Amino acid sequence: MDDRNLVFNLMPKADFGYKVHGDPFSTNTRRVLAVLIEKGLSYEPITVDLKTGEHKRESFLSHNPFGQVPVFEDGNIKLCESRAITQYIAYVHSSRGTQLLNLRSHKTMAKLTMWMEIEAHQFDPFASVLTWEQVIKPIYGLETDLAVVQENEAGLENVLNVYEKRLGESKFLACDTFTLVDLHHLPNIQYLLGTPTKRLFENRPKVRTWVGDITGREAWKMACDHDKSWFGK
């Protein structure tokens, strides 16, 4: 175990009364759980059953009128949109746990912000469709559209070519340390590693190393372990 993971395992959990409404299998919910765990923060998980359409019922729409998970509660503050939630947590707890933002350097922070936008607007549109087609649709008994998969893999390849070049200049995407930028990629990457799309990550040496580094983090492993991160809490 390296020093980073040793510190993570020894860090006492802090309870601020946070609540997370979501589904532990949801990519967006996992994104929020990963940040909470990286920061050593306790939270109350509240399951929203996506299969039964609970997220479209009035009881949930009162939390998020757009009917999407997760919703994060901090006292009288309610937040939706997973990336907004992760940034809120990282800002509020900037001095605790893993340093996911760099608030001391405006130049580094600008790069972080840029790469978070790249993840959301360049990587995620392709990755989310591929996750939906190859992972989520089969769960619901729906047939994967191979033409859609092929089209979105071509788009994802172009993005990963840019990443391969960038990762030749920096260990992680925004800088030489793990940040929210890398964390935001994790949910879709984790699912896609269980599909034929895995080859797109493996065929690029620097991307492959980066994926191994970020998916191997103890906090992420815990976020993916539903007994530890959700049902067992």
UniProtKB/TrEMBL annotation:
Q: What is its EC number?
A: 2.5.1.18
Query: Which residues are listed as membrane-spanning?
Result: none
Q: Which CDD domains does the UniProt record give?
A: GST_C_Phi (cd03187), GST_N_Phi (cd03053)
- Which ranges carry the GST N-terminal domain? 16-97
Q: Which domain of life is it from?
A: Eukaryota
Q: Where in the cell is it found?
A: Cytoplasm, Cytosol
Q: What class of enzyme is it?
A: transferase
GST C-terminal domain mapped to chain residues: 105-233
Gene Ontology terms, MF aspect: glutathione transferase activity
GO-annotated biological processes: toxin catabolic process
GO CC term, one of those recorded = cytosol
Q: Which SUPFAM superfamilies match?
A: GST C-terminal domain-like, Thioredoxin-like
The name on file for this protein is glutathione transferase
